[in-house]
Design goal:
The chain is mostly beta strands. The protein has no helices and 9 strands.
Length: 128
Amino acid sequence: MVEQITKGIKISVDTNFEGTFIKNNRVFYAFAYIISIENQSSDVVQLTSRFWKIKDALNFVETVEGEGVIGKKPVLQPGETHTYSSGCLLHSPFGSMKGFYNMINFTSTARFKVFIPSFKLSTPFALN
């Protein structure tokens, strides 16, 4: 698990290899990730959007951006945690992801970024 705190918001990431499958005569490697967003600040905050940079060992880079996470824009009271799971497909058996969430602080109305630490995606059979 990797963790990082930005402006009182703690991001924790855990990953899992889900398996391989073939689509259009190509092998893909499926990964799941579980993210916990914990509000350790004293203010109410809301996640409004996300940005991801996904890179595999073949230097294929994909960027993903959009509103919320899995169709939600969670509001977090101080001490609350929002956890969700999602996934991605890679063209190689290992890669990495990193990104950020755009947030708003309801107390100050300030918008800010919360960084998602870089985390590795790797198949068990690709590890030494």
